Amino acid sequence: MLAKPEERKPQKGREKKRRHPGGDGEGGEKKRRGGKEGEGGQGDGGRKRLDALSVGYFRRVGERLGEGFEDNEEREMFVENVLTEVKGKAAVVAMDRTGSITLQRLLPLCSSDQVAEVLAELGGESGLEFKVVSCDRCGGHVVESAVRQISKWMESSQKESPNNEEEEEESCGVLEAQVLSLNQVVRDNSAEFIKHVHGSHVVRTLLHVLAGCLGPPRTETRPGAKDRNVAPQLTDFEIPTSFWYELKSLTETLMDNVNLSVTDAVASAVFQTMLTVCHRKRPKLCKQLLKRIMEYLTSRNAAPGVSPLLVFLKDQASSHLIETIIQLSHKALLRDLYKNHLKGQLVDLALHSIANFPIQRLIAASAKYKLFLRLFDELIEGVEAILAAGHMGVIVQLAESCAESEEKQDELVQCLLRAFHCAEPGSRHVTCLPLFMSLTTYEVYYHSDTAEGNIQTEIPLSSICYHGSRLVQALAKFKERSLLLSSLRTLTPADLLTLACDPSGSHVLQALIATSSDKGRGKILKRLEGQYVQMACSRLGSRVLEAIWNSASVSHRQNIAQELVPSENQLRSDQFARHVWAKFALSHFVHRRAHWQEIQTGESKKRKLFSDILE
Fold first, then answer.
1. Measured between alpha carbons, how far is 305 from 309 in angstroms, rounded to an integer?
2. DSSP code of 530?
3. Residue segments in the chain with a per-residue pLDDT below the cut of 50
4. Distance between the two ends of the chain, CA-based, in angstroms?
5. Rounded Cα distance, 405 and 369, in Å
6. pTM of the model
């Protein structure tokens, strides 16, 4: 039974995410309608619903699809039979939760003609029905899945033999016509589509298809926390000539509604997709779009003497669009953005809870230009205030851009030492690493009431945080790293173990060891002696130990192996350490020492050879 579509207000500052069609409960919907599942009457504002028998049928079809097929003939026959059941009620099936999920799984198995037939029925004779289905929370997913299939068939037509080429082109032409029909409906109703929480996703998929690049389907499992901010991997494919012109027409239509891009978070996400795909596939078109959107943003009315862009940067809906614009902008546009709108305002914006994110993108985008020097000089004056506001992303990005540009590195380090109160006296310099990683000042970390003097008591390493780890990893890429390495060498073996086994700290230790000289690495490994067994038995510590092993000399590897071998039973029975035992070939070390030595020496020579080539 199809649940009634709900118009939910999108969250500000981010596009509204759609729930999986099968994830909604049905009990509440039944109660509100006062009907039973399976009633074939009119519901949901006069729209037909799928009856109980059909829902059961499509649920069984979904289960059968999960089992797979023995050969192509069996699969083709199954698909044909299911599509026979769908024919005549495709829209009703698509807008049912169970039917939608099943169709999304079935369409990738269909031929291009079959996909085109489904789309043709969803659109109706005039194509106008596309709007109703696309703006449905279940139907929209089906339309997206169908439109995406053209990438597969365009690729297969390129690989077909000359004899079948004409037939394949004709099949793709039928599907192409349906995509163009959908595009026309979107253009005729663009304002409604791009504001609709479900319809906007169809527009975004259409932009990808017309441009000739696709990411992974949205129906797949959502990414984990660490992957949420990573841009999806796009795959390019050949497009029909008509798509080239249709993309230009669609972007022109969307630009007629550019006002919605700064007032509506859902519409803003559509414009971000438009710019992203054009930047990848149509750079000249992207450049024109960027210029036009910036002209619109900067032409709005604001207080006298104040750039309207400052208002948009602090707005949750429009700030996301400006972030995308900054990421995709060329040198001249970035320079104009700073000179005419942001100059003298960077610290205030970096202190703002929303505007600090576009400022991070600006710092990153300017790293390869001289513009970065001007941004740095302005922002360095407010580092302590930015730290106090807790906007560590700005500080981390500043450090990463310094590393990339190889400029202003010493100035940033000295500024950070002052901000964390470990610049004076000089004896405090060796405390910088734990202070940076925990993002606390000297007095707070060491519980000192005075701002002078040396450490009175030894404090165990603690409170390593994500942004502190990111900051130190960026600083580890600087040309001058002696301060960090000196601070690392003052840590006790227990602190080094804590660092190696911490989710954030482990990345710091890997980065510092990787950037050390052979002599410096040896000093760190010397302090780690006695901790290798515990590291090997830790989920994170074992990864650090492997990284140490990969960069260690033969003599250092031998020392590590000698410490690990006496704990063979413990290591081979541990879920993490057993991989270490195998990768380090410690059984060889015990029983065939000379052979093990020979293998390690060979690997060391290869590593040195490749290192010399890369340098």
1. 12
2. T
3. 1-45, 161, 220-221, 224-228, 451, 453, 455-456, 610, 612-615
4. 64
5. 8
6. 0.81
